[in-house]
Amino acid sequence: MFPVSHNSDPGDRNRAIRYWKPGDGTPGVVKTAVVLFLIAAIGLLASGAMMWTAHRPVVEDADHMAYIETLSSNMRWVGSVQVIAAVVIALLIPGLVRGNGRRRRWLMIATAVVMGFTLVGWVFNVGGLEQPLLALAMALGALAMYRPAVRTFFGETPSELEG
Questions:
Q1: Which of 12-26, 29-43, 138-152 holds the top average pLDDT?
Q2: Cα–Cα separations (whole angstroms), residue 10 to 15, 16, 162
Q3: Which key words tag this protein in UniProt (predicted)?
């Protein structure tokens, strides 16, 4: 949990990283990331669709109607980004299972963008309680796909401080 200097005991089993080796199959943390991203993609799609189809009331007060129109526009923007991101995430997930490092990077970029829109939308009361939960699922998925033990699965080499 805390940073350790490179001269710590290399024989400590608690600090040992078991890197993926060819023939090991898909690592468990990658499968966990896939499940989290699938849940997030389905949630983003549902949330975006609800934002687009939400009933917008019509009121007599011009100021209140302007507020409703502004909120409606913001909901459509956030909903559009969420629907597009859900499709992009769903298209990038197979590359994650195959160990494609470039797809993992694109998935991380898409995750960062949609998490920003989702959380900003939640802070400004554009979305409901599902917004931070979707961001949490994506953050946990991103954490799982960037664990040190799966670097070799995605074609990277272990860090000199880790191995």
A1: 29-43
A2: 8, 7, 9
A3: Membrane, Transmembrane, Transmembrane helix
